[in-house]
Amino acid sequence: MHKFLYIFIAVLFLASCGHNKKYFKYDIEDVNIDSVPCTDIYGELLPINVSGTNSLFIADSLLLVDKQDGSSRYFFDVYNIITFDSITSFGLRGRAKNEFLDIPLISTKQYYYNENGDVIVPIIDSNLMKELNLSQSVKRNHTIIERMSPCHSDVEGSTVLIDNKPDNQFVYFYAHEDEFYRGKKKLPQVMVIIEQKNSKEIKCFGKLLNNNSDTKTEFFYWGKLVKQPNSDNLVLPLYLMNYLLFFNSSNMKCHAVHIQNRPSFEDKITSDKSITCFLSADATNDYIYVYYTGDYDIISEINPDYRGRILQFDWSGKLIKSYFLHDAVLTDISYSAMTNTLYGMNIYSGSLYSFKLGEEN
Q1: Containing H/E element for 12?
Q2: Which of 9, 53, 319, 351 has the most CB atoms within 10 Å of its CB?
Q3: How far apart are CA 191 and CA 233, in angstroms?
C-alpha cells in the first residue's frame, strides 16, 4: 500500500515539474545555464565601422554586412575576415533581377557552394528569395543573382532553404492578428513547403501565452531560424522568451529547451519592459552559438557594465559551454569555423568585435 502511495506522489511531483502542453505541444527540457563550465572571453575591437548596418554574416572567408540606413548607394559591404580589408560594395536599389526592391535581409544565415565552387548566399528581398553568387559578385564588383523564387517576407515569418533549393522552404510564421476577426490572435505556424506547392505543417502551439503587458503578444513568438548546414535540423531562438525551439524538416519532429527558472509559456506576462532573451544565433554542423541577454533590456538600457553570454549547445539541445563577454554588448553574431572565431556587432555604437573561442583568458 505504501509503495503505491509513494509511486502516486512521485507521479504527481513529476507532473507538477513538467510544462503544460496546452501551450507548446511537444517536449520541453529545462536547462540550468549555470550547470556547465563558464569562461570569460574578451573581444578584440576590429577596424571596421558597422554603423548603419543591421546584420553580419560570415560566408567562407568573407564577412558580409548589410547597410540599411541609406548612407551608401549599395546595400552590402564585403570584408576579408583574415585581414579585415574592405573588398567591395554592391547591391543597388531597383526592380531588376540583380537589384533589390526592399532592404535585403541575410536572415537565413545560410550559404552553400554551386557546381563551380562559388559561394551562394540566399537573400530575402521582399517576397523573393534571391540566390546571390557572392564569389562572382566580389570578382566582378557587381551583384550576380543566380535564381529567384517566391517566398514569404521577413515580416510574415522566418524562412530557410531545405536541401539548398529555393523552391523547398521551411517557414516559421509568426503569431499575428487575424485580418478577418479583429482582435483575434493567430497561433504561429510551422510549415515545410516542397517545390512551392506541397506543404506540411508541424502543429507546435495549442494556445498563446497569457499576456498582460504593453508588449504585443505576437512579439513573444518572434525569432530567426538557423539551420544545421548539412542536415535537416533547425533551431529557432526566441527574442523575448527563454526558449530554443528545435525542428526537423524531414521527420517533422519538434522539441524545445527552456532556461530554468525564467518566464515560460505558462506564466502570465505582466512586465511592461521588453526583456530580450536570445538576440542572435549562428551554427555549425556540431554546435549552435546563441547570444543570450537573459533579463536585460538591451534596446532601452545601454548599460556599459552589462555582460551577455554566448551559450553553446549541440543539436540535441544539450548545453555544452557558456562564455561571459567582458567588454561588449552585441546585437548580432556570426561564427566562422575557418578561424574558430565568433564575430559580434553593436549597431548602436558601430563596433565590430571578434572573440576567439577556446582561447579564453
Answers
A1: helix 2-17
A2: 53
A3: 14
Query: CA nearest 49: which of 18, 82, 79?
Result: 79
Q: How many residues does the chain have?
A: 361
DSSP class of residue 269 equals: B
Q: Are 312 and 288 contacting, i.e. CB atoms less than 8 angstroms apart?
A: yes
How much is the pTM? 0.88
- CA–CA dist 125, 96 (Å, integer): 12
Q: Is residue 317 within 8 Å of residue 244, measured between CB atoms?
A: yes
CA distance 343 to 109: 13
How many Cβ atoms sit within 10 Å of the Cβ of residue 198?
A: 9
* pLDDT (average), residues 170-191: 75
What is the average pLDDT value for the chain, to the nearest integer?
A: 84
Single out the residue of 320, 326, 288, 321 nearest to residue 308, CA to CA.
326
> Cell 533579463 sits at which residue?
295
- Cα 265 from Cα 281, distance rounded (Å): 21
Distance of CA 357 to the CA centre of its chain: 20
- Interatomic CA distance for residues 150 and 195, integer angstroms: 11
Q: Report the alpha-carbon distance of residue 48 to residue 45 in Å, rounded.
A: 8
Taking a C-beta distance cutoff of 8 angstroms, is the pair 31, 21 a contact? no
Q: Are the CB atoms for 41 and 361 separated by under 8 Å?
A: yes
SS3 360: coil
Give the CA distances from residue 328 to residues 43, 57, 324, 333, in Å, rounded to whole numbers and listed in that order. 7, 18, 10, 12
Residue-wise pLDDT for 21-43, tens only, equals: 899 999 999 999 989 988 888 88
**Cell output for 44:** 578584440
Q: Per residue, what are the HEC states of 168-197?
A: EEEEEECCEECCCCCCCEECCEEEEEECCC
> Quick count: other Cβ atoms within 10 Å of Cβ 12?
10
